[in-house]
Structures are given as C-alpha cells and as structure tokens.
C-alpha cells in the first residue's frame, strides 16, 4: 500500500509517477476532499470517516492494489505515523502546509516550535508556547485563528504577531500578517495554518515567583505556599517537561502554576475547596500564562477526573488523610513522587504512618526559615512558620 501526500491544488501537486500509481490502483482511500480531486477514477473509492481503527481493520483484509491519500506530509501530524505502525505501507510525502506557509513568509523554519490544536483541546497551550520566538500551529474549524487569538489575548500575549496562510497552493490562496486583535476579528478559510512570531520581549518569571506577585484572598493575605517552601517542594517533586502533576489544596495556585511552567508539555490538575481561592487561582493562571484544569471540590472527591500522576503535591488534606493518601499512592506512576507539606506534628506523624502502610519510604525536611525585615536603617530577621516537607516514593523503585 502506498500513502501519498497531496496538496490543496490536487493533481497538480503530484509527480507523474504518483499520478500513474493512483490510476493503476484498484482502491483509492482518502478524505472526501482528496477523493474529489479524482472524479474520473475508475476503481473503488473509500472515504475516511471517523476513527482510523476501523480503516486499519478494513485495510488489513484488503487484497486490492491500494493508494491512500493524505494532506501534505503524511508523517507531519498526519495519518502516516499511525498507518505505518499498523500496516505495511510506503509513504511518499508532499510539501506540508507549514512548509508552504514559511516559504510565503520567506523565513527559515528549522528554529520554530511546532504544535497542533487540530482535533484537540487548547488546554495547556499557553505554557507550551510562552516565550518561544516562532510558533507554528495546525488548526481546525473550532480551534481556528479567531479562537487562538482570543485565547492568547486572555493571557496577555500581545508581543506576538501572526502570519496566516489559507488554502495554500490553491486558486483561493491568501496569506497575510495580523495583530492578535485583527486576527480575532477577521474571518478565515477552514483550511489554514497559523505562525506566531514574537516581536518584542514578554514578561519572564524565574522559578520561585515572589509571593506578592500572586493574587491572594483578602483580607487574609498570605494564604499561599511561601516562595522558599515552594522552591524546595518543587525540587522534591522531580518534575520533567512531560510530567503529569496533581496539586491538592491548590489555594491561589502557586504550586500548580510553577509546576505548569516546568512541566509545560505535560498536564497539571488542581483541586481547591474554597471558591474564593479558585477565583484568585484563575487570575494567577492568566497572569503567569499557565492553563490547566482546576476543579472546585474537597479531595479525594474529584480525583477520578484526573489522569494518573507522575507527581502529587498536597498542601492540605482537610482531614481525609488516610483515604486521600491511599488514592494518591495507588494511582501514582512508577518512579513518581508525592510531596506533602505539614505545619503540625500531628499531620507529620499521620502522614508518615499512612505512607508506611502504603509501602512508601519517606524523607522529611524541616524548613525553618527567616526573612530579613528593615527597621529604620537596620535589618532584623522575622521567622516564617516552620514547615515539614514530606517526600514519599515507593520502596525498591
């Protein structure tokens, strides 16, 4: 079976050899738009609809000489990668839509960050693209340029301009540069690609964002994992760029936000029982350009909605220690870690006991920190509340 990439200009995009293979085939597979390029085809046509599993099952049994049509480069966010794992196929790529878009821009593309929101949620896109100089996006009818512009504007990403290519290599081709505001108001063809280019520096936050930068509950200022404790806890979580992270008792979202900026290609889930804190969490997420799932609830209820974690941070247990830790321990992936912050000896003792029962070993750090405070022309130190940082992992891992 041959998988042949085709452009939006149909037959004109194909080498004569590829056209010959199509003419000689007995079964032509592709999207309805692709099949429409060959009205005179004399063999059987099979339109791809729905999932690919059914198509693979059909093609496994197929004895006819078969050609499968795919847009552009079938191995670039296309069906080629999936089919090549399931079937014995030969792949013949065409120019991808993003190659054509960069050509129209007249700019190199080896230094761009490529991602797709085609057929998937934009959740997490903010932290994936923030700070990157050049971003190439594959879109769909829902996650279109308008939706992308409004999404980016909600996170204040006004340092970017967009180059949009529509119907590339067809008679209806249109390309152009847009500000995000212009992009939000325009109408675009369903067949488009978006390239974002940073025109100026945006905000930058290092690990350990200052406490005062976060929106917090008023008048009860200070309901936040303090910066120094936050940095130690994040270090103990051993996060990787693709980690899946839970933040239980998220409050203003300080841990989840910093975790999302580290695990920017992974997923972050947060749960918080106080509705006022959740509003602050959303404000902080948009300020610090992170986008993750936040639910209003008291753990362990609600954790069934989260993907299995590589790392779990627990800032508060709400008195459900035994059941909560059992769920966290049982769902934690191999090699994962749980970090629990405790302010009292009772919480420390109970957590250590439960982790022991679950077959986890613990390492405990007592963080007793003080910050300098100015008095006239002098400085003194003011102590922060001591915090036990409990790091747990399975034995023999």
Which helices and strands occur, and which strands form pairs?
Elements: E1 2-6, H1 16-24, E2 27-30, H2 32-35, E3 44-47, H3 52-60, E4 66-71, H4 80-86, E5 90-92, H5 97-105, E6 113-116, H6 125-129, E7 134-138, H7 145-154, E8 160-166, E9 174-179, H8 180-185, E10 192-198, H9 227-237, E11 244-248, H10 254-262, E12 267-272, H11 275-287, E13 293-296, E14 311-314, H12 321-331, E15 337-342, H13 345-357, E16 360-367, E17 370-375, E18 378-383, E19 387-394
Parallel strand pairs: 1-4, 1-5, 2-3, 2-4, 6-7, 11-12, 11-14, 12-13, 14-15
Antiparallel strand pairs: 7-10, 8-9, 8-10, 15-19, 16-19, 17-18
Helix pairs in contact: 12-13
Verbal overview:
- The chain is 29% helix and 26% strand.
- It is α/β, with parallel strands linked by helices and 397 residues long.
- The chain folds into three domains: 2-95, Tetrapyrrole methylase, N-terminal domain (Cobalt-precorrin-4 Transmethylase, domain 1); 98-198, Tetrapyrrole methylase, C-terminal domain (Methyltransferase, Cobalt-precorrin-4 Transmethylase, Domain 2, 2-Layer Sandwich), CATH 3.30.950; 211-394, 3-Layer(aba) Sandwich (Rossmann fold), CATH 3.40.50.150.
- The strands form four sheets. The chain has a seven-stranded mixed β-sheet, sandwiched between helices.
- A hairpin with a 2-residue loop joins strand 17 and strand 18.
- Helix 12 (321-331) packs across helix 13.
- The longest helix is centred in the C-terminal third of the chain and has 13 residues, at 275-287.
Q: What labels describe this entry?
A:
397 residues, Cobalt-precorrin-4 Transmethylase, domain 1, Methyltransferase, Cobalt-precorrin-4 Transmethylase, Domain 2, Rossmann fold, 3 domains, seven-stranded mixed β-sheet, five-stranded parallel β-sheet, 19 strands, elongated
